[in-house]
């Protein structure tokens, strides 16, 4: 019970810091806000902030670990008879249906804050790269690829680029003023087009 309460308290503290940071970033822009100011507004020490969030960017991109791992996790848990492409397409559609921030449903103020920050846009590119690397590792392991076989890396690059393209499209739609419902419809159409381009080379790749 004590451990459970301690874990809950840590989660609440982490969430409070994240919420405070996001509010300040949205009000003043990511680059203008310091860790010291976030700590003061959240009524915690600067060390507490950095213990939970070692990088300032992580305060804004709070779901960075999940974002980097989600494609690999989807492929690793794909259904019997399902290819990597089909699993990722199915998961993407489900994410659009629930308006998941991991596919770009962030709201216009947040999307604008990220796109206007050189630091955050660089961090987002890094997370996209990490996501591709993780996917390549899973594909290599699941297909029994030999060392030096570039097929898993090439497949991961194509699949990750599809998601990167769709994520940016979601951001663009948001910044153009599309509401979630209209953006979801447009994103589903775009996904059909983008994933369709991969049907030829990847339709039968990494089938479980």
UniProtKB/TrEMBL annotation:
<keyword id="KW-0805">Transcription regulation</keyword>
<feature type="domain" description="HTH tetR-type">
    <location>
        <begin position="11"/>
        <end position="71"/>
    </location>
</feature>
<keyword id="KW-0804">Transcription</keyword>
<keyword id="KW-0238">DNA-binding</keyword>
<dbReference type="InterPro" id="IPR001647">
    <property type="entry name" value="HTH_TetR"/>
</dbReference>
<dbReference type="Pfam" id="PF00440">
    <property type="entry name" value="TetR_N"/>
</dbReference>
<dbReference type="InterPro" id="IPR036271">
    <property type="entry name" value="Tet_transcr_reg_TetR-rel_C_sf"/>
</dbReference>
<protein>
    <submittedName>
        <fullName>TetR family transcriptional regulator</fullName>
    </submittedName>
</protein>
<dbReference type="InterPro" id="IPR050109">
    <property type="entry name" value="HTH-type_TetR-like_transc_reg"/>
</dbReference>
<dbReference type="InterPro" id="IPR009057">
    <property type="entry name" value="Homeodomain-like_sf"/>
</dbReference>
<feature type="DNA-binding region" description="H-T-H motif">
    <location>
        <begin position="34"/>
        <end position="53"/>
    </location>
</feature>
């Amino acid at each position: 019970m004590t451990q459970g309460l301690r874990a809950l308290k840590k989660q609440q503290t982490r969430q409070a810091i994240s919420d405070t940071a996001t509010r300040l970033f949205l009000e003043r822009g990511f680059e203008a806000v310091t860790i010291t100011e976030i700590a003061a507004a959240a009524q915690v020490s600067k060390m507490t902030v950095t213990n939970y969030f070692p990088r300032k960017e992580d305060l804004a991109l709070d779901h960075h670990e999940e974002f980097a791992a989600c494609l690999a996790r989807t492929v690793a848990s794909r259904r019997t008879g399902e290819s990597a492409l089909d699993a990722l397409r199915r998961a993407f559609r489900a994410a659009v249906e629930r308006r998941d921030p991991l596919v770009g449903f962030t709201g216009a103020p947040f999307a604008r804050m990220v796109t206007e920050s050189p630091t955050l846009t660089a961090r987002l590119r890094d997370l996209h790269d990490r996501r591709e690397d993780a996917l390549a590792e899973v594909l290599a392991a699941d297909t029994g690829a030999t060392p030096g076989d570039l097929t898993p890396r090439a497949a991961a690059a194509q699949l990750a680029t599809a998601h990167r393209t769709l994520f940016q499209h979601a951001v663009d739609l948001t910044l153009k003023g599309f509401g979630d419902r209209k953006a979801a419809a447009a994103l589903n159409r775009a996904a059909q087009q983008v994933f369709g381009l991969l049907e030829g080379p990847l339709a039968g790749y990494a089938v479980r």
